[in-house]
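Hi! If you just cloned this repository, the fastest way to understand the data is to look at a raw example. We've pasted two of them here, unedited. The first protein comes first, obviously.
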Amino acid sequence: MITALILIPIVIAALFLLTPEGFGLVIIAISGLAGWEWAQFIGWHSQGKRIATGVGFAALLLLMQLSISDFYHLIDIPMIKNGLWAGLVWWIAAILLVISYPNSANLWKNSVILKLLFGILTLIPFYCGMMVLRTLDYSINAYTGAWWLLYVMLLVWAADSGAYAFGRLMGKHKMAPKVSPGKTLEGLVGGLITAGIVSWLFTHFAPISNVPNHLLLISGVVVVVSVFGDLVESMFKRVSGIKDSSHLIPGHGGILDRIDSLTAAIPVFAGLVFLVSSGFQL
């Protein structure tokens, strides 16, 4: 709880106070640490290989950011748009891998290339989604994108809390027992209910003027995908034989343990809104 009380204000400050460039650098740093942790999933346990992996992820994202000349129209940049499409495709595939686990693990558990590719498909769309949402309508109102990013985060946090509460109270039907025995279908329903309440409250009380079409439907899909984001990391940890991705955050495990749901929720929300739906009606 102490760690959470420290981290939450820092996250909110980064959302609302940093410039797009500065915010991007923070996401790159977080992704670099996540890449350092992902190296264990690949099978690279030596500190040298883990550091090289983290630096490699950060360097790749930094090169992407340095190539951006216009931060106010990111969705029009092919690199960013393709990153979001890749994220949508990857999370469909990742959900199928979880559903068919442990049989699906035979397809990738011995392949360094595939496990590295899975990391790339997790972290690059995450960066693209974070940046597209943060810079939404930035030239008109610098805080619009920050509010929408906060919305997705609140959805994920509410769904996680609701799933935990409903699962403890009435959970009977396991959702993916071979990956994460604690998750139940009753918990998923509870998470959807609490996320729906958050969605209603946000659209009525947050200082926003443009709401995407089909927001409730998109939000429901995002909540379900965020649950699978958690399950995907659990699957990789189970195959790798590790409990926490690291011990960087006291009481919380590693970076991936904290952002696993967001790595799915952020690019899927951005992809559904900008690529599949009709945007933010701007």
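Ok, and the second one:
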Amino acid sequence: MSDEVRGHIVDAADGLFYTRGIGQVGMDAVRDAAGVSLRALYKEFASKDDLILAVLDKRHGMWTDGVTGAVDAISDPRERLLAVYDYLAGWFDEADFRGCGFINAFAELGAANPAVARTVREHKIDFQRYVAELVADAGGPASLAPQLAILAEGAQTTAAIAGTTDAAAQARAAAATLIDAALAD
């Protein structure tokens, strides 16, 4: 039962943190959204920081599953690289899109919370590592991977600020140009 309660609390906190911002959400709001007692909430999470890290862990899984699902559906190595941007386009089009939860968490808490900063960095490094594997599979140079990763990161921030999905298509077009140039060498 505890795993179920814990998951329910994380889901409720994730929704609140993502839509309102971490700093704007107190534990009472999480308690109310999760429909649990404050005692049950603190039994699962000794502090708000523990809950924030659990939400980021959930977000990491969502991101990883989403990106790898989009990429794994494609067999052509070049198109697998571009599938990352196709995934972004679908995500940016979701009604509740508010940007990257990791970028948002880092902007709010990164300077004051070393655990959050470390978790965000680990998430971003994991994505860069994944893109590097895709680049290697496509026969591209190692230098292409950080270029493609930064296009994806920039697209996330731009889409959140601009409130449109255009950044995904723009990043995809830039990625295609970079990929084609790198693979032609």
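That's it. A detail worth noticing about the second one: The first helix runs from residue 2 to 20.
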